[in-house]
Structures
1.
Amino acid sequence: MSDYFLADDLSGALDAAAAFHRAGRVVRVPLDPADWVGNAPGEIIGLSTETRNLSPAAAAIAVAAAIARGRELGARLVYKKIDSTLRGPVAAELAAVLDALPETRLLFAPANPAVGRTVRDGVLLVHGRPVHETDFGRDPIWPVRESRLRALLAGLPESLIDIPDTTDATELERTVTDQMTRGGPWVAVGSGALARPVATKLTSARTAPAVEKAPPTPARGPVLFLGGSAHALNRRQAARLWSTRNVPLHEFNLADSVDTFTAKVATSLRDRKAASVLVAPARGDSVVIRDRLTAAATAALAATGTARVFATGGETARALCVALGVRVLRFDAELEPGLAAASGTGTAGPLMIAVKPGGFGDDDTWVRAADYLARGA
């Protein structure tokens, strides 16, 4: 039986893909379930349902549709990626999993101990504080109101959901081993930290070798850095890229003409072989900004023949790939935790892309992404 996993956005899917890639699996990420037509030997599929910012009802429908696609192809769901701070319609997504896969147990372990997110006495803590008491409780899009995991999942069958305390990586590994020892169908649900022991232990039991011909790589050329996330860290990272690599920085806001802004970015790509784009702090409607930013970036790439891109924010990365006609991404490398490199083929030919969530990395993360994209895979 072939395997697949789900995530609620593209950056999360690529974060999980890193764990399976490290374990020796080829990982492909179709941008739509309809683009998934089967698995090659040793391959695992990652699907993003793009449900992080949907209503609970809409998220449940999207998760059910993805699982239905997996059932059509005879594939087994092995892992469900969620945000390690519980942002998004988590309970609705898990209800959809249980509805679609009756009698399946869920191992619910959202902890990511390496970044201070642990579960103790059934409560999700961020550096020792209940998550709802931290900045995540004031998230402008999806504020986290509940830190008690059982309360978060109230109404779902407790007998089918295991919620272990997980304060370090060893405990995460042990919970996965325990589930495998029990036997029967089960799905791991958690952060990227949980994906690592899941990938390692499931892959060790597989016999099919991972074999795939290397995808085409775009010729070396300009690199576009697209900052679609509102997280403040990205401004520091873009400033560091400017000071160390002299990459021009362009700021986009809703008052800008898309055509005029595109021309400025294209000029930097032609003359300086690189350009960075950030959204102005006064952002406005996030969907409108995403769509206009994607339109400007797509036009600048087409005008200059640029095929190497760095994007922050899963929604921005996915919107750009769709606009470029990329249907499937192949995971290539984990450059650092949370920073993934992937490749695909769009209407204009091969594309190389690096993606990270907005809040990941340090001040030099954009610089490291630049070095990778400049030298090629």
2.
Amino acid sequence: MSIVRDTEQAEKGFKTDEMVINMGPQHPSTHGVLRLVLNLDGEIVRKCEPVIGYLHRGMEWLGQNRTYVQYQALVDRVDYLAGMSDSHAYIMAVEKIAGITVPLRAEYIRALCSELNRIISHLLWLGIFMLDLGAMFGFPFYTFRDRETILGFLEEVSGQRMMFNYIRIGGVFKDLPKGWTRKVKKWITTEFPKYVDEYESLATRNPIFLVRTQGVGYLSPELAIDRGVTGPSLRASGINIDLRKYKPYSVYDKLDFEVPVSTVSDTNARYKCRIQEMRESAKLITQIIDKLPGGDTEDLEKNKAQLTSGTNPVYKAEDLMTIAKGKNVPMGFKCGPGEAYTAVESPRGQLGVHLIADGTSVPYRIKWRSPSFNNVSVLPDLIKGHPVADVVAIFSSLDVILPDVDR
């Protein structure tokens, strides 16, 4: 059942006329392109209708009119805060149909970059979430400070800060810079945990924050499953489904980590799940660096012959060939015929690609399963009966990225 905050007038039976207002698409807290048509009874929302489509860019159509290689550069824009996840899902579909085996080192690098990307996505969400709630004391500066550090790491690897285009067909664009893993591990183990503690000291037990989030926007597990909600928004409702554990891909079956789950199901629970996910991602990054075949690029160059030679080599030579086909796939690369659906656990949930290939160099059909599209569908149910002041808190807690909705 939903916790409904009503006015004294409503409790005493006073009748008021309903008013229809538009929140967005220009409203800053609807992130510029979502329009909510609200029916208000005084301050209470009686009905909410999300209007989407203001940011439609035809990502599926574009993919069906470009070669597989050309489309690699576009997919980071499906969810611009999770470019590594976008690329990973699409590339896995191509590799599955084409029968391409990815070197083990490249798989570890993909997982490493995806977890770094998960943290920067959650950091941006947390800073904006607090700003949407009215935290005017500069909270986003804390999260953006640390996000900048990780963006710097990923820029060293890919040359880009957001549209990375790093995960490629057959591997990754290039190997990691020398000394990069040591630098990342030092920061992620010594500095980052203290910063997460700092976020929690400012928010988790803050009485104003608790009033704005506890008991607000209850999402029942039944409704979440019915609407196809995934990611932290689903796990905060007690459903323990994370593709990294549930249907492991890449090298996640070789890693040890916990999936944060809560049964409280409200806005505060969704916040706590994402906070804990950042801590778990930091642990994953440390594990990946420790298990990375060949170690740091500097060590790899020194020890490659030793690691791959002898009667019992530590790795096969192809396991350490980081780039593999990623650098050598021609522009006219042909795939199929075949059909595949592959999915990854993005920061917002299950991000999948249904790909149909007909043996040419251009995909026959591409369909994206974007988590924000499903997650935003529960918004009318969560908002109903709450005052209009709670609308922003509830919407923001779902971590909806509008390009991921409109595609």
3.
Amino acid sequence: MSNINRRRFLKASLLTAGSVGLLPGAAGLLVQKAAAQNNIHSQILGANDDIRVAVVGINGRGADHIKSWNSIKGVRLVALCDVDSAVLQKGIKQLKDNNQDVAGYQDIRQLLENKDIDAISIATPNHWHSLAAIWGVQAGKDVYVEKPVSHNLWEGRQLVNAARKHKRIVQAGTQSRSNPGMRQAIAWLQDGGLGRIIRARGLCYKRRKSIGKTSGPQPVPESVNYDLWLGPAPMEQPRRERFHYDWHWFWQTGNGDVGNQGIHQMDIARWALGETELSPRVFSFGGRLGYDDDGTTPNTQIVYHDYKKAPLIFEVRGLPAKPDADTMDSYRGASIGVVVDCEYGYMVLPNYSEATVYDSRDRKVREFKGEASHFENFIQAVRSRKSEDLNADILEGHLSSALVHTANISYRLGKQESPAQMHEEIKGNPAALECLTRMQEHLSANNVALAKSPATFGAFLKFNPKTERFTNNKKANELLTREYREPFVVQEKI
């Protein structure tokens, strides 16, 4: 063995030994077994080494991960993991048909035993994101994890802590942060291009049809290992006909559309404001309106994060512009985007990579455009071993995801109120009143009268950004985490 290879071997051995025993239960034993083997691949990669990636969760967004990793030079896709054996075998076959052999796993704990995997790419349902990522970094893997990076606030902070402790590269899947058009627009805005920022408004006007009303618990597809699928969530039978997507609209596994699509725009809005902590005050109101189905998360929602310098407002609309249509409303030309109001005009960011600037007379004065690969940015940081090279380091992902969680906690602690009561609640807040008025108009266009179908007005919550705890509501603090189901537990000590 050459001196260089011997040094790399010893360094890799020490790194892996540092990870031994950190995972609970079977996962910890698997990592110990892997570390005991002599043929250990160094996690300190050279410039010419292939980075070997495994995708965890390959149905839906995971298919995009597979395509992206296969398009990057110096990256080798070596494994797939999915709790649905039918989905897993289909994915393996598609790659094999393209002369690409990969290992297949149903259980992520077995995947983490594989010493020939350098990084995992997570596209599971939300309730698995933090736990899978934490187990990954504890096993010595770098991690790309989809948004939101957590299902609740506490586990998101635990993921940040784990990444720092184990010195892993962890990228949040908020890809806007890698697009040069977006980066240039935000930098220009923060440099005072339009003067003082008055407010940032995120928009998620995205059609969501009813998921239907079932007669009771629904069967789980035979190909799904349901124990693994649930992971940290309670052992309950699904109440949805479409098993593989509609989990988004149930609190035990999803976070509603503010945490599904809206997390992207929430992240851009916070980025535009330059805020690096959670908001000190938050409230939210809305409801699951316009149809009666089994979903529990709102399809209509207003969020108000009361930052000191300028508020961050968020709007969710799942109903169309008018009944029996799929066309959606827009706000200043954006349906899924961000609008930043400033002293001398406003900026509209209608997608993930573009921005248009208007002056106070609505005249277009400037445009920003440009895309880049968020996955490639992750690989660059994996090679440099510098988390600061990431465009969406896990801390940024945690903060934006946590804005979703605090807003949803407010909503979940709310009560149904009449339109008059709701107006009374926010009578001293012109921006929130304007949102409520437009929300009522939108619902009215869909034949939804709040007097007959009351919305829920959430609790007014005060929050300490330093401790990441609420200061005025005990029940709100209880919702910062969840009761985990053994052995799928996010541990206090990570």
